[in-house]
């Protein structure tokens, strides 16, 4: 009977693994306090989005987003990390952006996503994530910023979003990294802000030591001397989750003069929606973002009458959004461009 049960268990595992995304158990079992939630949530610019979140008992989290059927075909995989906290019946995931991702605890085995202000999402669609039977370590790879330090032939990296330090192991030896660090550091034993792409693994630092997480560096991107996690010294303003207010519209600069409240918008962190103010009415819509591309669709406003200048401002603002095809952030300024790379509008963060 024991052999029969074993065979049936193997058969069930094969059937389940063929029904969805392949999941690999971690090589080293995590502590019992770690929890993974996962589910499929709606997506405005793809067929669906698979979201997986692992909460670690040291109050950090890692997250994986898989956008299924993105524009142009294929899937898009993104990782993120940060710190989590529980506030009443809410789970708050802080990844360093203005609007943290929030969930409400439905039960001990289920959480449901809230909007960026922590309110319920009014929808018949399912925004729930459910607890997995095992922990997914969500190893990456992912791009990270942190304080890089080299001492006695070892490298450590204090990751900015979590505040946690990890030993670094380079996938391919690169002597130039240490040379650049020594040239850029402000003093002996002082760290330098760095950006790298890597993945997490469990390793023993030495033969008799307990396993701990290391970062395997797949690509060392750059040092940012003089920068810190709070002040990176390069554009820290994110396109999504930032409130953008208009400072100029091409061909309509005179229209904005004397306006008491200029148009503004916020691109949601998740779901591909926008909210804002058109200069006269509340604004809603959706957006599609690429590395350098950005377009808006389904733009709509409330129906308040807009006489005089407020109506002209609204018309110019919506016209620029409808033509938008590209974007660039310099410091705290967002520039939108049309298909021919002509400047349409400038917006300021804050």
UniProtKB/TrEMBL annotation:
Residues 238-347 form the DUF306 domain. It comes from the Bacteria. Residues 141-230 form the NlpE C-terminal OB domain. PANTHER family: HEAT SHOCK PROTEIN HSLJ. This is META domain-containing protein. It comes from Prosthecochloris marina. The lineage of its organism: Bacteria, Pseudomonadati, Chlorobiota, Chlorobiia, Chlorobiales.
